[in-house]
Amino acid sequence: MVRCFLIHTVCPVSALGSGESRVLYSRVFGPDEGVLSAQQRELNPEERRLLQEEKLAVVARQVRSAVSLTREASGRLLVETVPGEEALALQEADSGVVRLRAGDPFSEEMSALWLGVQSLGFALVCEPHENLLLAEVTLRNLTRHCLEHLHMLGQGSEVLLKSNRIDVLLSRLLPHGQLLFLNHRFAQSLEKEVAVYMAK
Amino acid sequence: MYSHGSESLIKQAREIQESELQKFYSRLVKQLQVKELGHETVDSLQRLHLILSATKYTRTLPSELQKRLSSLLSSPSEQLQVLSSAVLRETLPLSGQELNYNQDNISQLNSHAAALLLSQTGSRADLSSLCAQLLRSLESRPSEGPSHSLTHTLPILNTILTHSPECLTEDHMTLLSKKLVDWLRYASITQGGGASSGGFFTGPRSRQPVPIAELDGTVSGDFFTVLCVGQGFTEDQWMNVYSFSMLRHWLLTYHSVSNGNTAVDSDDRSEVDGSVVSMVSATSSSSRLLPPKERLREKAFQYCQRLIEQSDRKAHKRTDTELQKACLVEAVCILDCVCVEDTSLVYRAFPCIKALFGRLSSDLSFARVMLPLAQFYLNHGEMAAVDCECVWKLVIGRFPAELFNDPFLAHELLRFLRLNLESLQLRVPQYTRSFPNLLKLLAWDSPAVVDDFVDLLPSLVTAGTAVELLHTLLDLPCLSATLVLQLRSTCLPISEPGGRGLLSLDAFRSPSYRGLFLFLLRGEAGSGDTIDRLSTLHELLAEAADWPRVIQCSQTVPVLLHIFFNKVIMVADKKLLAHLILVQLERSSLLLNIPNYIKEIHRVFSCHLLRLCELHPSLVVDQSHELLEFAGTTANVYSKEEIYTHVVWVLGEYLSVSCDSRCSVKLITSCFEALEAVLFEITSSAPPPGAGHPAPRVVTTLMSALAKLASRSHDLIPRVSLFLSKLRTVARGGSVAWCSNEEDLVAIVTRGEELWSLLKAPGVAQSVLTPPLHVTTPQWHRDTNVAMPLRLRALTSLTHSQ
Fold first, then answer.
1. How far apart, in whole angstroms, are the C-alpha atoms of residue B616 and residue A200?
2. Which site from B67, B340, B354, B801 is most exposed, i.e. has the minimal number of CB atoms within 10 Å?
3. Measured between alpha carbons, how far apart are the two ends of chain B, in Å?
4. Minimal Cβ distance to A99: which of B53, B164, B451
5. Which candidate from B9, B158, B320 shows the least CB-CB separation from A1?
6. pLDDT tens digits, residue range B298-314?
């Protein structure tokens, strides 16, 4: 299962320290892992939510670090793309996977797959025994849809103001964190539903 | 992409004043009271979500607002469902009120409301009841209805399984097994969605059901799977997709919650007899007689075999080709899983697995499919007496050598090694010799995989390969540079004008240096510890010292060296340790010149040199010749200060008869003379041009070492005392050419005075500077000198209760 999906900054943000990342969208699937673990049961719901937000911040920071180290090592110049060039932006995106050790920050070991598209990172945190090939394909797909439907290559803030679109996208392509084996026909059918929703 | 606009929106949301927020809440409540909710309400809801999610601290909503939002969860408009679910997820449930959906409502529980329920679960009991309700709805649900009202059920169940597998009772498992079998094996084989085979003029009456197709366009001849296509899909075909998507997890969980009589002992060789029988009887016609669990296992087996066959077809679309690969991975994993559960299936599975391996082994683009295959071979190969040589040649041979720059493959390969470490060490003898290949993954992308190597490196340290491994680790940055050159060499044309890295690239391509690079790129250990022309190699790669990839790699080497040394003391004999000391001395001047790298390596060397000598003090006498040579070279004071200091220290500390009876007076004297010469040289004149002043610590260590040696051979004492008094005189005269800092000079002179006064009483000097073993390794209660007082004290405290 996928534990969470994040969209966050991988560029420097003036209000934050270096290495910090601003989380623009986050979706955690399933019950809070703290609820069912003995040590965290003493926390009240507010503290649990705080803890969860902190965990997501840790993931965002780790991915940000991975993105900048990868970009530094490859020495490739960042290609600036404009709205309409989503396919190119995706092609040029850096990708990789971060191993999150047990306890840092989730109670079990996780694999965080990531895509770095210019100044934003898209991360999918999965259980490591998950089919990572499928997860990679799903992440690319989700990213492409986000870039297109939320016009993320432009200067707008739809990722913040139209986050319900991402929710619907996830409910079709990654329902409750379930990765789906979708051939092009099934995918088309779901994407049509999503497109109908986005048109509202 | 990330604009100032977004940043200021977030800022506004976080800093909204309480009064403004309350006004917003009441406005929103009013908006929600209207019958038809319009665009402004949707925008307000979205804005509310932003306000709630922008801060990690939870805001509570007024209960009126929260109640209205809860009622939106069952709104016919999906947008309102989504928004209300998203908003409510960001806040706390109203105290005392749980989102209780009774049995009647459960079939109307849409995906977004369910998501909220899941996220607000407070306990396992909540999950259990949700689980029970979902399964009841699965059971009793009529066959008509909107196509997606059921589809989210399986993902939710899968989530519950992930967090709390005990939520399912035996009956639940049976029910779901039966459903899964139906959906996986008996879904419709005709296209749904009103597809017809007729043309434009065909009326509804002549519409005939069209069969499903394969990905290459041919008509499908067997049951429906995720790799089948149609114009539209029926509901059970959708459920086929959802079922397969959760199948592996179900089988894995199933296996762990299954009771004793279904769990199979995979090591039980007596299964061989039983397997002959089941090979014959386990055909699909008899599977109807199997209990639900076993039936599901059988159907899963058939589904996977079909997927493997379907993946051989040439799909029309690229996305489908990718899906075929993912399906192959999943299918092999599921086969592995069912074979672990029921070892009799291994004989049925292996022909298929072997054929698949044969088909894919020469195509590197299928590398990621190979890993589950390797896992299958590792788990079941021995039982089926299959030769796995070719698998390992590929997995620890070709893959790291040729696909080191695929981050996903690297991650999965290293994870495979980590999980199967014990097995690999037992069954794959070439594993410990494969480190030159495996380290390529680290050399290429150090930050991403260093964590994995921290776990794996100890398993690669063996007595037979330790020296070669040490050299390889020290030259990891060179390997990094070489891999960069290798890739550039294949991408760039032969002559590129004014390109970066031209010199090293030329060297890489030139036949006279080929051997050097080929050695670094070797796949297996055993052909030699290192090369003779290392310094040449370092010169050729000098310009690589500022390549980011090389620098990132060099930063991981110290940590790995620590791990190496920590492990090697456990497996090495004294001879090997002696050899390692020599390697450290030799390599201290033979390192790629990356800023800070040499210093860090020297620091690691110093630390472990000390440890090795502490563990085996006789090593110092053993290797005295080389250590003396090192310590007697004045240039080392300036270029290798850290190591030099430690070498001098170990010489002073361990070159004594009490550490090794072979230590002769002659040896002590020659050591003394060598160190004395260096001390004279560095304290008599200014340092050579280009070198800084000798570190004060070097001077004091030399002085201490000389004093120690003199305390063991008393006729050396006058020589030391003479030097120390001369030093005091010179220092009193003001500044000296070899020490710029007055404080340091004072410290040096003070130490000199201490040693000088100590040496005035040779017997005392000897016991202080060369303490006998029973002082340095006290035995407490075992020591007769120490035990009595302890006993008395213990008795006293027992008898005098306070």
1. 78
2. B801
3. 75
4. B451
5. B158
6. 999 999 999 999 999 99
